[in-house]
Amino acid sequence: MKKRQPQMQKRAKDPEGFSHRPFKNLDKLYRNTVACSGSAMLETCKSQQKSEDEIFRDAMKEVREIREFRAIAVRKRSSITPRKCQDIAHEVRAELEGIVSGKFAIRLTDTQEYVEWANPKYNRELIRDLREGKFAVQDCIDLHGLVLEAAEEVLRDFLAEARLRGYHCIKIIHGRGLRSQKGPVLKNAVITLLSSCYRKQVIGFTSARKNDGGLGAIYVLIA
Tens digits of per-residue pLDDT, 61-96? Predict the structure, then answer.
């Protein structure tokens, strides 16, 4: 009688027949990742519990002093104290009293009647020289007693004649219109004509100096 040979246990084979299994230790890797994440969160919580001084020291630990900046001079505050309104008012009142008494002369440029116009195409320093009387007046016309229409015609002819003769500085007497109920009509008309209709021919104009007609006349600089 033959003896039965013991049957060898067969190895269990991979049902799919794969020898490479990359996800075999996936559960272990997941547990390690969770543990590391928990440690990182714990460290973050600890860092959030730091005081403001500790946070500041951590942020400034890499900062280094620039010694060259020690030599930069610091501008000191001015020792001049602002003027009081009372002092300014006192000076203004004293100046007005001096003008009324004749002690001080009136500056025409400070009055409301003073006029000045400059053609933007030219250097404004020319107008400053004109105001200070540095140009010799080469011809003059007096428009007193003329009605507006006649004054405009006379002014037009006068300017044309001055340019023909090669004049550069003329004087126009227009008056101040103090006796007119409508104000300085003639003066305003002359200013408007020179700064608009004849602006291509005019460099600029200013009120004359006190000894040359003052606020009742103007110097005109012709191009």
Answer: 777 777 766 666 666 666 556 666 777 777 767 766
φ, ψ for residue 37 (rounded to 5)?
-65, -40
* Residue 104, phi then psi, degrees to nearest 5: -110, 150
Domain ranges of the chain: 84-109, 114-222
Q: Please give the Cα distance from 161 to 188 (Å, whole number).
A: 22
Q: Which amino acid is at 31?
A: R
Q: What's 108's DSSP letter?
A: G
In DSSP terms, 91 is beta-bridged to: none
Please give the angle made by the CA atoms of 82, 84 and 87, to the nearest 5 degrees. 125
In the chain, at which residue ranges do the beta strands (DSSP E only) sit?
Answer: 116-118, 139-142, 169-173, 202-207, 217-222
Question: Quick one: tokens of 104?
Answer: 């001080």
Fold designation for 114-222:
Ribosomal Protein S8; Chain: A, domain 1 (3.30.1370)
Question: Which 8-state DSSP code applies to residue 131?
Answer: H
**What is the distance between the alpha carbons of residues 223 and 120, in angstroms, rounded to a whole number?**
13
- DSSP result, 117-175: EE-TTS-THHHHHHHTT-S---EEEE-TT--HHHHHHHHHHHHHHHHHTT--EEEEE--
